[in-house]
Hints:
two-stranded parallel ribbon; 5 helices; 48% helix; elongated
Amino acid sequence: MTWAFAHPAFFPGAKNEFATNADAWLIAHAAVNGLVVVTQEQYSATAKRRIMIPNVCLEFNVECVDTYSMLRDLGVSFSRI
């Protein structure tokens, strides 16, 4: 939370929204336990109105992948019956 509120690029509304949702807790849990965060959000170097999960993961060296990458890494396949 300290990082988000100290970051000058984000608008106050983005900081307040980040403080009220579970994203920070999810990322912190992954960081402490060596886990991977799965999200459909995309990294954005220009984000100001919203603090994106991949941006925070990058800042704190937490691996972050999208759902399709996770499924591919797990070897999941779907077939018609």
